[in-house]
Amino acid sequence: MAFTRREFGLSAAAGLAAAAVPGWASARITLGNKRIETVSDGYLTLPPEFLFDGLEPDALQQALKQYGLAAGPLTPEVNVTLLREEGRVVLFDAGAGPGFQDSAGNLPGALDVLGVTPDQVTHVVFTHCHPDHLWGVLDDFDDLLFPGAAYLMGQGEWDYWFDPQTADSIGSSRTGMAIGARRRMERLEDKVQLFRDGEEILPGVAAHATPGHTPGHMSFEVRDGSDSVLVLGDAVGNHHVSFADPARLVGADQEPQTAAAARMRLLDRLAAEQMQLIGYHLPGGGIGRAERMGSGYRFVPAV
Fold first, then answer.
1. N or C: which end of the chain has fewer CB within 10 A?
2. Residue 23 has what pLDDT?
3. How far is 279 from 290, CA to CA, in rounded Å?
4. What predicted TM-score, i.e. pTM, was given to this entire model?
5. E strand spans, the chain
């Protein structure tokens, strides 16, 4: 049987993903005729300072103990949300692709296991433009992985990362992110559809501005009647610090104070309404709820 270069790449990706990722659809939600599941792109390997920036070594060890975290690198999951309903196959974010970290970029293989081919994806909706969310739009050959898809992004996020001056102003530790984002966005320029806060971007899918992690970060409420789920992206980026003490500033956020304010608003609403949530880096596939706990909250996984 002959393979095109794309088919060969996807076949190889499926094999690598199967070896690296314990499960494809970690959890599922049904809202009317909407079937929502999370699909593993793998995991990231990050230094503890990514969340505990500025802590002295002794304080860092105390924080790790407080939240039950092992010493050494943090390894958060990468959970891509897949929404299927009649006529639409929608991805919320595109994973890391082949050029970021070896432990991530497994989305093509994960989708293959679920019987979803890249050509079947009709829409890719972005929460923001960090590498593990955007870079997966290109395959190993720098071709668009989802060639028939429409690409949807918030106007503010697009404007920020597409601006060639961003690479000079963002700070040296993030320059590579800006350059990488711009390169991929150039490939999407003729296909992208831009939207603003509060718009219904697809039937039953509304955009909510949750800035701070990046300047134009968006979350998405998927609704059917009175039932809904909030796709958070990185608005709440971990299941411990940012739930227990949402006002605490996090080094991963580009605008930490703005991000903390958005996080507090989100968690207050999620806990009050007991709305289901999906977090891009939360454990167990990322699906669960927020519950009040003391002066903060806790993440309650669905599985």
1. N
2. 40
3. 11
4. 0.90
5. 25-31, 34-43, 77-85, 88-92, 123-125, 150-154, 192-195, 200-202, 205-209, 218-224, 227-233, 276-279, 287-293, 296-301
